[in-house]
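A reminder before we start the practical. When you read a complex entry, don't treat the lines as separate problems. The point of joint prediction is that each chain is placed relative to the others, so the output describes one connected object in space. Small molecules and nucleic acid strands, if listed, are placed in the same frame. In the example below there are two entries. Take a minute to note the order of the lines before looking further.
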Amino acid sequence: MPKPQKHVFVCAQARPPGHPRGSCAQLGCAQVLQTFAQQFEQGQLYGQFALTSTGCLGACDQGPTVIVYPDAVMYAKVKPEDVAEIVSGHLKEGAPVERLLAPAAVWG
Amino acid sequence: MPKPQKHVFVCAQARPPGHPRGSCAQLGCAQVLQTFAQQFEQGQLYGQFALTSTGCLGACDQGPTVIVYPDAVMYAKVKPEDVAEIVSGHLKEGAPVERLLAPAAVWG
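Here is the predicted structure of the whole assembly.
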């Protein structure tokens, strides 16, 4: 792929039911990743931006977590219905979505 | 985790034997990831830098691939014995390791 203008990383870490850390998988990250993929495809954004699933991003109680580089912005508790705002506001217009930012104690 | 100064992403994508795209797993990415993890632990680097495995980064014939953000540098065909140079040269001293850079046709 060409070097993307922005690269979206979506935590896809799973853990067994009952694991004390929980996981982004348990919190619905598959639907978040799927929604990004759909919007990238529908908007023909793959040449401009990249989308990659990851192992644990470390903020398991804040999941589903999403990091956008090179801006080094982490979003927390992202829902599928938040994805359009990240795509339009942050990726396309360059303004991180303030209401979804991870707390500074987690990523600051 | 605190926001890292640099964030190392190592492709950990696997595919079944004989798959036409191959994969970074087939090319030895597990040993590369493991070597980064060992050096992060031994050097107590986890507070400063982050290390995350990923799904496919798209350059399957250039694997194992590694991307360092926020610099947006992709390394190709990384071997475990290359990791120390990336850690010391790039992460600590800020100078990407030229000889390991992915070709511009792949990430340019």
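Discuss with your neighbour: Helices of chain A lie at 29-42, 83-92. What might explain this?
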